[in-house]
Amino acid sequence: MSAVVAKGQRIDHLSQPKKLPDAYQEDRRSVYWLDKLPTETEGTTKFVVNKHQENLCKPKSIHNEWTGDRPTPKWEVSKAAQQAEASERVSD
């Protein structure tokens, strides 16, 4: 029973706001440089691509035996398939 109370007190303690340090200044920005601003750099990040990544960006080449003579991607349905009736198992 006392473990539950202690646990509740610990949560209450941890939920309280922490004391600010004595040197805290309200309007001071959180920065890593204190004496001067960092120098401005030109542009943005420059990307470096290795040869493997460069090859991945290229389109895939067409197979040398491909002729491209297929008239349509649609398949014709045979007369037998058009006249077929569903079995009892499928109809249920």
TrEMBL record:
<dbReference type="Pfam" id="PF14912">
    <property type="entry name" value="THEG"/>
</dbReference>
<dbReference type="InterPro" id="IPR006623">
    <property type="entry name" value="THEG"/>
</dbReference>
<dbReference type="InterPro" id="IPR042401">
    <property type="entry name" value="SPMAP2-like"/>
</dbReference>
<feature type="region of interest" description="Disordered">
    <location>
        <begin position="61"/>
        <end position="92"/>
    </location>
</feature>
<protein>
    <submittedName>
        <fullName>Putative testicular haploid expressed protein</fullName>
    </submittedName>
</protein>
<dbReference type="GO" id="GO:0007283">
    <property type="term" value="P:spermatogenesis"/>
</dbReference>
<feature type="compositionally biased region" description="Basic and acidic residues">
    <location>
        <begin position="9"/>
        <end position="23"/>
    </location>
</feature>
<feature type="compositionally biased region" description="Basic and acidic residues">
    <location>
        <begin position="61"/>
        <end position="77"/>
    </location>
</feature>
<feature type="region of interest" description="Disordered">
    <location>
        <begin position="1"/>
        <end position="23"/>
    </location>
</feature>
<keyword id="KW-0677">Repeat</keyword>
